[in-house]
Design brief:
The protein has helices at about 25-30, 30-40, 80-90, 110-120, 145-150, 170-185, 195-200, 205-210, 220-225, 240-245, and strands at about 15-20, 40-45, 45-50, 100, 120-125, 155-160, 185-190, 215, 230-235, 255. With about 260 residues, the protein is α/β, with parallel strands linked by helices. The strands form three sheets. The chain has a five-stranded parallel beta sheet with strand order 8-7-6-9-10. A three-stranded parallel beta sheet has the order 1-4-5, covered by helices on one side. Strands 2-3 form a two-stranded antiparallel sheet. The longest helix is centred in the last third of the chain and has 14 residues, at about 170-185. It is globular.
Length: about 260
């Protein structure tokens, strides 16, 4: 996407941009100048911003606060090479011949309208993982998640994954662990965060693994886990990728969203 923002127009190359992340994050980048002019306040040579102010002046971002939009727009070092590159991308993307988005048409009609107004051709093609072949080898499952699931009853396992960026507050992690402990439900928890692991109740991880009731891993083959017959409940933060997985029916069971 960054490369598509700086083509040599004289070459007369057909330029097509591909965006695989959340649509809202791209919309925030496309409105960088508007957000900065509305939010940023010059203060004796420095720049300050209101973290709790909502972006109610941009359709589909009205419920987002400044603290929730991507770094490099109004937070972080706005003069870093990365921030400058992102800004340049946002300024040049509308000049591309087409923009391919890994989302569904009509999933959010406001999003569709914004992209159609910004790009010459807007092509929502759906989640890209639907195009990937099924991977079935041990190197794709280094922690033995599928082998462990094979030993469980149908729809008996809670799969918990909050991704690599978002982490629930300590109080919510503790409450979740206590709930799993009290109900004796079987679970597979993908938790690649040592700080998060350290706040779990003492002995909780050891008890779960010693009894075979739970499995903690730093990474899990998510698509294969969700398609497994043993998966009965999916617990996550409702991120873009996980919502797409649910919408594509990769997982037919209930999806419990914990808002972060």
């Amino acid at each position: 996407m960054l490369l598509c923002g700086r083509p040599e127009i004289s070459l007369k190359i057909c330029r097509v941009a591909l965006w695989t992340s959340a649509s809202e994050s791209l919309i925030a980048h496309l409105h960088t100048d508007l957000i900065r002019s509305t939010i940023l306040v010059a203060d004796q040579g420095s720049v300050s911003h209101e973290n709790n102010k909502t972006l109610d002046f941009i359709p589909c971002l009205s419920k987002y606060s400044v603290s929730k939009i991507p770094e490099g727009i109004v937070t972080g070092d706005l003069h870093s090479r990365f921030s400058i590159a992102l800004h340049g991308m946002a300024q040049n993307l509308p000049r591309t011949n087409a923009a391919v988005m890994a989302t569904f048409e009509d999933l959010d009609r406001t999003v569709d309208e914004i992209f159609r107004s910004k790009f010459k051709t807007y092509l929502p093609i759906g989640p890209l993982h639907l195009l990937f072949p099924k991977i079935n080898n041990s190197t794709a499952d280094p922690h033995g998640c599928i082998a462990w699931l094979d030993k469980q009853d149908a729809e008996s396992v809670v799969y918990i994954a909050f991704g690599t960026v978002a982490t629930p507050p300590s109080s919510e992690l503790i409450a979740l662990a206590e709930g799993l402990d009290e109900t004796n439900v079987r679970f597979l928890w993908s938790l690649n965060n040592e700080k998060a692991r350290s706040v779990l109740p003492p002995g909780f991880m050891d008890r779960a693994e010693q009894t075979g009731r739970g499995l903690f891993v730093s990474w899990a083959p998510q698509l294969e886990v969700l398609r497994h017959v043993a998966a009965g409940l999916f617990v996550g933060h409702g991120g873009c990728k996980k919502v797409r997985l649910a919408a594509c029916r990769w997982f037919a069971g209930p999806f419990l969203v914990i808002i972060l």
